[in-house]
Amino acid sequence: MSDKDLEARHLETLDRDLGRFSNLEHAAAYVSRPLVAPGIAFIFIVLVGLAAALLLGSTSQTMIVVTAAVFGAYMALNIGANDVANNMGPAVGANALSMGGAIAIAAIFESAGALIAGGDVVSTIAKGIVAPEALNTQASFIWAMMAALLASALWINLATWIGAPVSTTHAVVGGVMGAGIAAAGFGAVDWGQMGAIAASWVISPVLGGVIAAAFLWFIKERIIYREDKIAAARVWVPALVGVMAGTFAAYLVLKGLKRLIHVPFGMALLMGLVIGVICWRIMIPVTRRQSQGLENRNKSLKVLFGIPLVVSAALLSFAHGANDVANAVGPLAAIVHASTTGDFAGDVSIPLWVMLIGAFGISFGLCLFGPKLIRMVGSQITKLNPMRAYCVALSAAITVILASALGLPVSSTHIAVGAIFGVGFFREWDAERRLQKARMALPAENQISADERRRRKLVRRSHVMTIGAAWIVTVPAAALLSGVLFWLLSRIAL
């Protein structure tokens, strides 16, 4: 064999070996890709623990607070992965926002809401579910709150994994209830409050769905089904944007900025009315300019609802950061307060560093794990466009305002997802109604069979069942898990 042949064979062997190494690198990258997000989350949790240790220094309670901070960081990551999808999902599903844009807006406005308007005074036993005096000692209280925090975080993590948006506040309430029962028995729980929360499982999604369906019916009747859609849009879109602006103004004053300013309910509604009228007048020439040159078809109408939808998603995120984050990190604040002062029966203010854990944890959780739930909420329950997503966002704000007026403990998660269900089921009803009219004019051989009509359902029943089941079991599952964790933690501490 010549030297040239030997060299060619050597190069061929070298190419095969390099090819194997290249395939190995691709395989390693493919396998390690799913581990990147959990790895970053783990680093964040470790850094939170180290920061808490440095902040407190060497005291007898340092280890307890550091452990609670780690659990709080884990909880915040799960809130970002699960709860924020309700605000951003409709805008992403309607293609008004890209996934990257939604994550950026949500991270900014959730953090701003938590740091600017969050940190409201919370009860040390999370909304009065368990009487403070029922937990006799400081140690029992701390372990109960620790168990509640970890149990609610674990349950939200599981819900995110199976693709079910659940209420973080309900998970915390369930965790507190379970730990309270484990520590002091069933008599320690305020069952009247728990009954109101159980009622909200039905009230929240039904009310949200009905309001969203009503607005979608109005848009269809007044704009979409009109012969000249653009002319109808020039009349009604400014009014609808004004309604949204006024509603969100009142929503933010009542819920998002309540720590900064206290405004009576009637005054908040009056402020919303004034802002709504101003925005309505401003939007009349704006809508006229936007509609110039648009074709007379449904696709053209999406342009007119895009910007209001993005603004509503940002405001929902701000209000969520100001409210639900405080509820979620409330147990951590209670542990810090009880550990450093020895008082566990009074109210506590959430320290700034605890709010920072909540704000940054939500942002990290959203960026690392949020897209899965955002896609599910935005497009996998039912197909959304800007008009339908507008109805969902507006319904969420209106329902919260109505609940505040009636004193009902509703869940923003249940409202938003219930509104999506409402939009989807209304579309099914409306499509069936219109099909029924068309079928009457068709010969029998051209009519669609009942099986085919069932196949064309516009709401995925599998998601309805999964989400509904997750809502029902959130409180009892978090309670059971929290009770077990309290028993384990209290035994370890002995």
Automatic annotation (TrEMBL):
<feature type="transmembrane region" description="Helical">
    <location>
        <begin position="195"/>
        <end position="219"/>
    </location>
</feature>
<feature type="transmembrane region" description="Helical">
    <location>
        <begin position="260"/>
        <end position="282"/>
    </location>
</feature>
<dbReference type="InterPro" id="IPR001204">
    <property type="entry name" value="Phos_transporter"/>
</dbReference>
<feature type="transmembrane region" description="Helical">
    <location>
        <begin position="389"/>
        <end position="406"/>
    </location>
</feature>
<feature type="transmembrane region" description="Helical">
    <location>
        <begin position="35"/>
        <end position="56"/>
    </location>
</feature>
<feature type="transmembrane region" description="Helical">
    <location>
        <begin position="303"/>
        <end position="322"/>
    </location>
</feature>
<feature type="transmembrane region" description="Helical">
    <location>
        <begin position="231"/>
        <end position="254"/>
    </location>
</feature>
<keyword id="KW-0813">Transport</keyword>
<feature type="transmembrane region" description="Helical">
    <location>
        <begin position="350"/>
        <end position="369"/>
    </location>
</feature>
<dbReference type="Pfam" id="PF01384">
    <property type="entry name" value="PHO4"/>
</dbReference>
<comment type="similarity">
    <text>Belongs to the inorganic phosphate transporter (PiT) (TC 2.A.20) family.</text>
</comment>
<keyword id="KW-0812">Transmembrane</keyword>
<feature type="transmembrane region" description="Helical">
    <location>
        <begin position="464"/>
        <end position="489"/>
    </location>
</feature>
<keyword id="KW-0472">Membrane</keyword>
<feature type="transmembrane region" description="Helical">
    <location>
        <begin position="171"/>
        <end position="189"/>
    </location>
</feature>
<keyword id="KW-0592">Phosphate transport</keyword>
<keyword id="KW-1133">Transmembrane helix</keyword>
<keyword id="KW-0614">Plasmid</keyword>
<protein>
    <recommendedName>
        <fullName>Phosphate transporter</fullName>
    </recommendedName>
</protein>
<feature type="transmembrane region" description="Helical">
    <location>
        <begin position="63"/>
        <end position="81"/>
    </location>
</feature>
<feature type="transmembrane region" description="Helical">
    <location>
        <begin position="141"/>
        <end position="164"/>
    </location>
</feature>
